[in-house]
Design goal:
The strands form four sheets. This protein has an eight-stranded antiparallel sheet. The protein folds into three domains: 15-82 and 457-478, Uridine Diphospho-n-acetylenolpyruvylglucosamine Reductase, domain 2 (2-Layer Sandwich); 86-198, 2-Layer Sandwich (Uridine Diphospho-n-acetylenolpyruvylglucosamine Reductase, domain 3); 203-444, Alpha-Beta Plaits, CATH 3.30.70.2520. The protein has helices spanning 40-53, 104-111, 129-135, 142-145, 173-179, 214-224, 263-266, 287-291, 297-312, 324-328, 355-372, 411-427, 442-449, 451-464, 473-478; strands at residues 18-22, 29-35, 57-60, 76-79, 86-90, 95-99, 116-118, 152-158, 164-168, 188-198, 203-211, 230-235, 247-254, 277-278, 282-283, 319-323, 346-354, 378-384, 397-405, 431-432. The chain has 15 helices and 20 strands. With 481 residues, the chain is α+β, with helices and mostly antiparallel strands. The structure holds flavin-adenine dinucleotide. The site of flavin-adenine dinucleotide has 32 residues, from β3, α3 and β10.
Length: 481
C-alpha cells in the first residue's frame, strides 16, 4: 500500500488488472495493477480507483528505463502508450504538438520526409515522448544540443487533483523546469510541443576512429567537439594496463544543403529503416539467440577484442554516409538483444563526471570492475553540458555508461562495486541518471543533487500532489521519507 494516502476507502482493485511489469534491464520486476487510458478522463478514473483502494499511481511510457523508474509494485501503473495521437504539425517551422504516448520512432517517421529530425534522441527509438521528457533524455550530441527539455516549447500536465496546467518557459516556468526530468512525480504530462531540427538530407557523414586508451579517447573528443554534430565513444572494458579505455569513436555530421544530390530519396522513411536481416540471411527476430552463447565473460572479451582490432585498422579521415536512424539507433539493430542476458538480466551504470576529473574517475571505475571480476560487456562514452532543469543529471563533463550482466554468482560483487563507483563519482561532484539507475543509495542521491535542490523538488511535489499519490519503486528507494 502507498504511504501517506488519505481518504482511502479500501475498495479493492480488479484482480484482472494485475500484471508482471519489468524494467527494461529485466533485473527489476513488479506485480502491479495496470491501467491503459486513452485520454485525460481515463487517467482520472485510474487515479480515483487507486485513491479508493489506498494505493499509489506510478507512470509508465514504453518501459525503456533500465531499472525501477517505471515500476510501482503492488500499486497502480498507468501505462500511457495508448495516448499516441499527433495533434498538430507545421512542416514550415518544424513545430509539432503530440500526445505523450507518441514514441520517438513515430515522431521521426512522421516528420522526416518534410526534412525535420528531432534535436535529441536516445540510443533506442522506442521511448515515448512523455518518458523522454520525464527523464530529460540526452543524445550523442548533448554537449551541443542539450537535453530534450531544451527543445520542448510547452506541455500540459494533469495533476492528480484533476487540474490541467499549461507550462512553458514563460508560464508556470518553475513547474516546466521541474517536471522535465521530474521522473513522473509531479503529474502526467499529457501533451507536449516540440521544436524539431531542419535537415537537408536523410544521411549523415560518419567517421570511425580507433583510440588506444583513455588518454587518446579524451584527446580525440576534445579536438573533435568543435567540428562534430554527434560524437560517441565505445570502450572495450576488458582492456587493461596501457590499453585501459581503448575503443572506437564515431563522429557524425549533418550534410549541408546541396551536398546530397537526392535528398527527397534519402529522406524517405524506407531509406531510414534498419536492415531486416544480418548479411541478408539471418532474420532480425532470431539474432539475439545467436548472441546468447557469447554473453559471458570469455565471449564478450573475445567480441570486444575483435572490435578493438578492427578499430585499430581504420585509417583516419575515411568517412561514409549512414541514415539518421541507422546512426542514432544502433542499439535497435538486433531486436530484443537484451534477452541474451536472461535469466538475470542486466543493469546499466551511467555516471556523469566534470571534465577535470572524468578521466581519473572512469579509469578507476574500470580498474575496480576488473579487480572485482565483474567486467561490463559494453561501455559507452559521451560529452555533456549543464542545463537548467531542477533534477538535472548533466554536468560540464563526460558520462560513461556501463552494461553489467546480473548473475546470481556476481550480484553481491556487483552491488559492492557500484557502491564503490558511486563514491568516486560523488568525490568528483558528479551525477547519476534515474533512467539507468538500479542500485543508487538514498544518501548518494541526496549528496549528488544536494539538499537544497531535493527540498525544492519535494516542496513542489507536495504542492502538485499533496496526497503523495504519485510514486514508483525508484521514488520510494531514493526519496520517500
Ligand atoms: C537500449 C536503450 C538505449 C537508451 N539510450 C539512451 C540515451 O542515449 N540517452 C538517454 O537519455 N536515455 C537512453 N535510454 C533511456 C530511455 O531513453 C529513458 O529511460 C526514457 O525515459 C524511456 O522512456 P519510456 O517512454 O520508456 O519511459 P519509462 O521508462 O516507461 O518511464 C520513464 C519515466 O518517465 C515517467 N513517465 C512516463 N510517461 C510519463 C508522462 N506522460 N508524464 C510524466 N511522467 C512520465 C515514468 O514515471 C518514469 O519515471 C536508453 C534506454 C534503452 C533501453
Amino acid at each position: 500500500m502507498a504511504e501517506h494516502l488519505n481518504n482511502q476507502t479500501n475498495i479493492p482493485l480488479p484482480e484482472e488488472r494485475l500484471e508482471n511489469v519489468e524494467g527494461w534491464g529485466m533485473s527489476s520486476t513488479a506485480v502491479s495493477y495496470v491501467y491503459r487510458p486513452v485520454n485525460c478522463d481515463g487517467i482520472q478514473e485510474a487515479f480515483d480507483a487507486a485513491r479508493h483502494s489506498g494505493r499509489s499511481v506510478g507512470l509508465r511510457g514504453a518501459g525503456r528505463s533500465y531499472g525501477d523508474a517505471s515500476l510501482n509494485a503492488e500499486n497502480v501503473t498507468l501505462d500511457l502508450t495508448r495516448m499516441r495521437r499527433i495533434l498538430k504539425w507545421d512542416p514550415e517551422t518544424g513545430v509539432i504538438r503530440v500526445e505523450t504516448g507518441v514514441s520517438i520512432q513515430q515522431l521521426w517517421q512522421y516528420t522526416i520526409e518534410d526534412g525535420w529530425w528531432p534535436h535529441v534522441v536516445s540510443g533506442t527509438m522506442f521511448p515515448t515522448l512523455g518518458g523522454a521528457a520525464a527523464m530529460n533524455i540526452h543524445g550523442k550530441n548533448n554537449w551541443k544540443a542539450g537535453p530534450i527539455g531544451d527543445h520542448i516549447l510547452a506541455f500540459d500536465i494533469l495533476l492528480p487533483s484533476g487540474e490541467l496546467k499549461h507550462c512553458s518557459r514563460t508560464g508556470n516556468s518553475e513547474l516546466f523546469h521541474a517536471a522535465i526530468g521530474g521522473f513522473g512525480m509531479l503529474g502526467v504530462i499529457t501533451e507536449l510541443t516540440l521544436q524539431l531540427k531542419k535537415v537537408h538530407s536523410g544521411l549523415l557523414k560518419v567517421e570511425a576512429i580507433g583510440v588506444r586508451n583513455f588518454q587518446d579517447l579524451f584527446d580525440l573528443f576534445e579536438s573533435r567537439l568543435p567540428v562534430s554534430d554527434y560524437l560517441v565513444g565505445w570502450i572495450d572494458c576488458f582492456a587493461s594496463g596501457d590499453a585501459l579505455g581503448r575503443g572506437q569513436v564515431h563522429q557524425a555530421n549533418y550534410l549541408e544543403p546541396g551536398e546530397d544530390t537526392h535528398p527527397v530519396q534519402s529522406l524517405r522513411v524506407e531509406h531510414q529503416e534498419l536492415p531486416d536481416s544480418l548479411f541478408g540471411v539471418v532474420p532480425k527476430s532470431v539474432m539475439w539467440r545467436l548472441m546468447k552463447p557469447f554473453v559471458n565473460d570469455s565471449g564478450m572479451q573475445a567480441i570486444n577484442f575483435a572490435k578493438s582490432l578492427s578499430a585499430s585498422t581504420i585509417s583516419h579521415g575515411q568517412t561514409h554516409t549512414q541514415s539518421h536512424a541507422g546512426f542514432a539507433f544502433l542499439l535497435d539493430y538486433v531486436p530484443n538483444w537484451k534477452h541474451a542476458y536472461k535469466p538475470g538480466g542486466l543493469i546499466q551504470y551511467q555516471s556523469f563526471v566534470p571534465k577535470e576529473s572524468a578521466q581519473a574517475v572512469f579509469s578507476e571505475q574500470l580498474k575496480l570492475a576488473q579487480s572485482y571480476g565483474v567486467v561490463p560487456y559494453l561501455g559507452v562514452f559521451k560529452r555533456h553540458r549543464p542545463d537548467n532543469f531542477l533534477m538535472t543529471h548533466a554536468v560540464d563533463g563526460y558520462s560513461l555508461a556501463l552494461d553489467f550482466a546480473v548473475t546470481p554468482e556476481k550480484k553481491g560483487a556487483l552491488l559492492s562495486l557500484t557502491a564503490e563507483m558511486d563514491r568516486l563519482v560523488l568525490e568528483a561532484e558528479g551525477r547519476f541518471y534515474f533512467a539507468k539507475d538500479s542500485a543508487l543509495h538514498r544518501s548518494s542521491a541526496l549528496e549528488a543533487l544536494g539538499r537544497e535542490r531535493i527540498s525544492k523538488f519535494l516542496a513542489l511535489k507536495q504542492e502538485c500532489d499533496p496526497e503523495n499519490i504519485l510514486q514508483t519503486n525508484l521514488y520510494r528507494r531514493l526519496f520517500a521519507e
